[in-house]
Every structure is written in C-alpha cells, then in structure tokens.
Amino acid sequence: xxxxxxxxxxxxxxxxxxxxxxxxxxxxxxxxxxxxxxxxxxxxxxxxxxxxxxxxxxxxxxxxxxxxxxxxxxxxxxxxxxxxxxxxxxxxxxxxxxxxxxxxxxxxxxxxxxxxxxxxxxxxxxxxxxxxxxxxxxxxxxxxxxxxxxxxxxxxxxxxxxxxxxxxxxxxxxxxxxxxxxxxxxxxxxxxxxxxxxxxxxxxxxxxxxxxxxxxxxxxxxxxxxxxxxxxxxxxxxxxxxxxxxxxxxxxxxxxxxxxxxxxxxxxxxxxxxxxxxxxxxxxxxxxxxxxxxxxxxxxxxxxxxxxxxxxxxxxxxxxxxxxxxxxxxxxxxxxxxxxxxxxxxxxxxxxxxxxxxxxxxxxxxxxxxxxxxxxxxxxxxxxxxxxxxxxxxxxxxxxxxxxxxxxxxxxxxxxxxxxxxxxxxxxxxxxxxxxxxxxxxxxxxxxxxxxxxxxxxxxxxxxxxxxxxxxxxxxxxxxxxxxxxxxxxxxxxxxxxxxxxxxxxxxxxxxxxxxxxxxxxxxxxxxxxxxxxxxxxxxxxxxxxxxxxxxxxxxxxxxxxxxxxxxxxxxxxxxxxxxxxxxxxxxxxxxxxxxxxxxxxxxxxxxxxxxxxxxxxxxxxxxxxxxxxxxxxxxxxxxxxx
Length: 643
Prior knowledge:
Largest sheet: 8 strands, mixed
Structural class: alpha+beta
Number of strands: 30
Strand order of the largest sheet: 3-2-1-4-7-6-8-5
CATH superfamily of the largest domain: Spore Coat Polysaccharide Biosynthesis Protein SpsA, Chain A
Shape: globular
C-alpha cells in the first residue's frame, strides 16, 4: 500500500538542490515501500531530466514524467496529482528537504484524525520564527481557529488527502505565470476541508533559501504583482462566501491587505523611481477601494493603519514621508544572567528597541493613552484610533527560541516577560522589557530532547507594532556546563557574542572553559576549570596535547567531571614535568594553549604563545562603506522636497 505520494515539479534543478531533496527522502523513517516520489519535469532545457531518470533507476519508488514547458509549477503538480497512488499527497519544491520523520508522522497524524490536510511544522532558512504562531501545539482540528488561518503559511508544503482533492476537483491554476498559485489552491482547500490538522511536535519541512535562490517574480513594482493580487483577493471572496466562512474569509483578506497591499509601503518604497512609486500607489488605491478594505482596518497595527488612511486620503507625499520616519525598529536582547539549575538553563535578558542609528520608537503621552509621534500634517489627516499605540504596547509579544544551526528547526521556550513604560520629561515615552526563559535540553523539542552534538542558538522574537524581529540573544557571560543523566550540556557566548547551547558538548567544553588550576593526582593531570557549574557526574572527552618537538597535537582521552558546582578536566597518565595542552583556547581572551609546568611539588599554569589552529576564522575585511538604505531614502526625500 502506498501511503504517501511525494510530488515534485522540476525545472533546471540545481544538482546540489536535487541532492539535498533526494537525500532527505532517503533518510525518511517511513519505509521506501510505503511512499512514492513523482518528479514531473517542466521541459528543462538542461540535464535535469537525465539526472532524474538516473535517480529513478537507483530508486524503485521514484517515477519521472516529462511534459512540455508550461512555465510554472502548477501543471507539473497537477500531473503529479493525476499520477499519484498514495492515500495522501505531499508537495515539495525541487531544492527543499523533508525532516527525517516527516512522512511517517504527518501521515499517521492525518489518518488518526481523518484530516483532509495536514499542516506540518515548517522551518525557513532565513527566518528563525517562521510559522511559529501556527505551530504552537499539535491540533487535530484547526478549522475555526480564531488566532490565524489554519493553512498559514499558505504555501503547498503540506500533506493533502488525495481523495479529498479529487472529490472536490481541487487543482492548481495553470498558466505561464500564475503568481500565488499556492494561495488559489489553498483557498479551495479551505472551502471544502472538514478537518485541517496542525502537526507541531515533529519537524516536517525545511523551505531552503540559498544564495541566488530568491525569486524576482514577486517584484512589488511589477505589473504581474498588481495583476494577480486582485485575483487572489477576489478568489478569497468567491470561494469562501457566506456567514459560515466569514472568519476565515476575513482572516485571509486581512492577510492580503495588511501584508501585501499596505505592506508595500515600507522603507524600500521611497527608493524606487517616481514612476514606479506612482504606479504602486495607484494600484494599491484601486484595490483598497474596490474591495472595501477599510472595513478591516480596525484590526491592523497603528503603522499599517496610518498608511492605509493616507492612501485613502490620496496623499502619496505624506505616505512617502511616513515610510521613512515610521520605519520598523527592531527589538534586541542581551543576557543579564545565564545559569544552569538542576539541568535546566535559565536565561534572563533585557530587551530594547532601536536601530543601528540609535533610533527608538517615537511615542508620546496623551493622557492615559500612548500615541505614535507623527508630523502635524499627518496627524491632521489620520484618525485618533490610527495613532493610538496603547494596546500595542500592552500587546508586546516576546518569544524565546532555540534554533539548530544544522537543521534550522526552532522550538519555542517557556518565557515570562515584563514590559516597562517610562514617561520622559519631554513628554515622550520609552518602552523596554525584561524576559526570562528556560531551556531543558531533555525536553525542549516539544517534549523530546534536543539533537546532541549540535549548536543551538538562543533567539528572541520580539513583536511590537509594525516591528517583528528575530535576533540572537547577545551574551558575554562565561561558559558553564551541567551534567545530567550522564549527558553534559554546555552554554557559552560564541565568537560573535551570541548565546549558544550544545547538548552533548563535552568536546567544545574543553575549548570554552578556561583552566585556573593544575595538579597531578595519582599520576593523572587534573585541571580546575573556571566557572560555576551544575549537576554531578563525569563524561568522556578528549584533549589536545603537544609533545616538545611536535607541531601538531595528539588527542588524548580525558574525563570532564562536575561535583558541587566545580568542574575538573582529568587526563589519565599525563604527569610529565612540562606539558602543553589546548584547553580554554576558545574562551574570550584565552591563549591558543596552556603550559603546565612543574615547580617543585606544584603544577603552575602559563599562557602559551601558540595560536589556536582551528579557532573561528577571522572575518573577511569589509569593502569600503556604501550608502545605507537610510541615506538612500534621505536622498530621495530631499529630491522630493520632503526633508
């Protein structure tokens, strides 16, 4: 029985992308006999088809079909649906990857809950918090969800019941250039699906972004963008009619209006040519009017609402000014405390909002309300509700994340926060916050342990007004370890001063913990390591040691032991009078090695002049500075007479 058909449209597929995709399919926990892979090549002019056919000869569950070029992934996907034999169909793009347990977990979850569609946890290479609000917990039934549409992100990287697609005639819109074909498809799914399940506890899909992989199709000043956006908006209205569909219809309408229509008026808007700016302004005005989007504006944040009202007031000049003066300001976090307690990491941070120039959110006090500070001519045009930031300050959302550098999957962490509002003498308001979150390496992956011997970076996702930013947690707090259940977990500030955790990090711990004492005990070299540590036990590791005349070190077995908050590195049988060891060379300011030398019955530590041979590479020198986006924007505004 074929449980899942994986449908992959291809066109001029890069070899490395195809290798990544097929490798992820080969690693699936679902037996190859239970799923099939259908590649449909859209008339590639290169050797893509030949490479696919070679793959098919080596994989009994791979099928390859070739069609004449259609110019878009829609027709290849539709051909794949017709050829599919699986109970469920999973769509993949030709250079992405599935996580190892994806097919098994999503299929079993879908069958268990009779799902017409399964929205599995997705990661995106360039966005740590991608889809995090959707994938907050496993949800057998997400239809009717009020905090967001259950099919967001609205891409096709999901699993759909084949009979459901066929019974309702759900297919991708075909054509040479069909922008947002996945939205058209998922709107039909939303109309007919009785059950949409959300699988959050098992990583499903990695949407891979590599250098040069970004599409130029969705150019916001291009005619295609504005030709297809009204069609998307109309499809949402046509396919989700009536009061019974009002919730999801307005969820999707608001997403298009806020993110795509009003969303084009960002800091990049004013860097475009006058002709492009006018074209975008007029197109946005027409859509705003034709779809009566003003009815949704009370659900938008202040920045978006101000822009929407200026658009409706036909004030392109003021809208351009706001695109600069009201640019999103990112949130940043810096650790004030990082410590292990009973095997759980506790991190306390300060959170501030500012950009690289020191600009902070412009807020002013107005009685018991907090308002966005705006130029007088803008304030005169927009409503008082549009400038009111009080609820947005109260609604600041902070989410702690731990993210794998290897797989790019991220997990939300338990967090408590406190937002601080400071009234300044000049009437302005300054907003900051504190956040404390915990990380249990044994359960942080939705109850499962984090992958061992992998770097996991700590992030804070900060959402405030029109700013939604992911930033690593900055830290200069020295490294420390916990030994729990026979496993050593390390936290340390990496070479970029970002807080990083390595479960099973005993090798890196030797490099990150600086020695502060040395002794020989029963013929073993014992190095006392700096810091306050947690747990109890010892784990096997290795240490690099140089003999007198050797240029390369030898790795010797060692043990890293923690007792009563103190850590020791023990190297059995190493009792030479003088020995050079590589310990703590990755600690901030540490030398490339330490020399342990005998002085009578004592052992003393001396800093070696030897460089750390495999320390982090030095950054490539930056080229001569180029004008920043803000400078470019300023130049445009001056030309327009707005600054």
